[in-house]
C-alpha cells in the first residue's frame, strides 16, 4: 500500500483526536447518571444493530458474483432491495406507531437475520426474497429505533438538549467506528480464516440476535397513536396531512431526501471516480478513511449542538454548501485536468485531489446525521413519527432505483453534477427552514416585548 493512504489516514486520526481532546466545558453538556445509563444502553444496542448491517456490505456484491450472476442480475437484486424498502418497508415501519417501536425493533432483527440466512442459497429467487427482507429491515432500522429513542427520552423526563448527545454518539460509534471494525472483521472471517463470503452474514446474524435479546429484556414499549380505530390507511393520511400542513416538516423531508439521495449515489460513484483508468486502489482502506472522516464530522456536530447559541438550522446551510463544492469537484477537476492514469497503476494526482474532496464530503455526512435527527425530534409529531420518517425515505428509494437502473447511461461527471445540484437545493431549502423556524420566534418575542412595555407603563406613570 502506498504511503499516501497511510499518511492521509493518520492525519485524519490525529485530527479526530484533536477535535475530541480539544473539547472545553462549553462543548460538553452536563447530564445525570440515569441519562448516562439510558444512553449507554441505547448506544450499545444501536452499535450491535449497525454491526449487523455493516458486516454485510463488503461481500454482498462479491457473493453474488461467486454464485455466477451477471452485473444486470445483480443490479436487479439491489433495485429489489430499495424497492422493497420503499413499498413494503414503509408499511411495516409505519406499524411501529400503532403496535409499538420495541416490537418493530425486534422485527428488524428477525427480518434481517432471515435475510442473512438466504445468502447460503445460490438460487436467484431465494436471494431475491433475501433482498426484499433486507429492504424491509432497512426501513425499520432508520425509523423504529430513532422513534423509540425520542419517545423514551421524553417519557423519562430528560432534557431535550441531551438528545443531541445520543444522536452524535450514535453516528460517531454506529456509523463510524463500528463500520471500520465490521469491515475488518468481515475481511478477517472471509479471507484470513478462509471461511468464505457467506461468513460475514453469519456473523451479522449473531450480532443481531444478541442485540435482540438485549431489546427484549431491557427496553420498555412505547407507541405513537395506538388507538384501535387507527388503521394503516388512517396513519398514512395523518402523516401526509402533517407533512402537507406544516412547512417545517415538508422542508425537513425534502432536505433529507436531497442529501440522502446524493449520499447513496456517491456510494456507487466514488470507486470509478478515483480509478477511471482501472488504477489499483485499496478499496477497504479508502472506505475506512471515509468512515474516519465521518467520525470527525459527528464529533464536530456534538460540539456545535452543545452550544445553546448555535442553532442546527443555521450551520446546516454551510454543511450543504461545503458538500456541494465537494461533490462538484470531479466536474471542475475533469474540466481543467486530463486524467493520466494507467490500468493497474497507482492513484493519480487528480485522484488524490478527489480523495481529499470526498473525505470532506464524508465529514459533512458525519455532521448531517446527528443534526437532522435533532431537527426531526423537534418538528416531527410523536403520534406519527415512524410513519413520517418512512415517508421521508420514499423519494430516496425512488431516486436510488432510478440511478441504479441508469448508472451506465450517463457520464460520471454528469452524475456528480446532478448530486451537487441537489445539495445546493438542500442549502436553499435549509435557509427557508431557518426562516420558517425564526418567524414564529420573532412574533413571539415582539408580543412578549409589547406585553412587558404595557405592564411597565403604569409604573413609569
From TrEMBL:
Keywords: Cell membrane, Ion transport, Membrane, Signal, Transmembrane, Transmembrane helix, Transport
Subcellular location: Cell membrane
Any Pfam family hit: MFS_5
CDD domains in the record: MFS_MFSD5_like
Predominant subcellular localization, coarse grouping: membrane
Secretion signal span: 1-24
Biological process per Gene Ontology, one example term: monoatomic ion transport
CC terms in the record's Gene Ontology section: plasma membrane
GO MF entry, a single one: molybdate ion transmembrane transporter activity
Transmembrane region(s): 42-65, 77-96, 170-189, 201-220, 249-271, 283-302, 314-333, 353-375, 387-405, 411-429
Topology relative to the membrane: Multi-pass membrane protein
Biological role stated in the UniProt entry: Mediates high-affinity intracellular uptake of the rare oligo-element molybdenum.
Protein name: Molybdate-anion transporter
Taxonomic path: Eukaryota, Viridiplantae, Streptophyta, Embryophyta, Tracheophyta
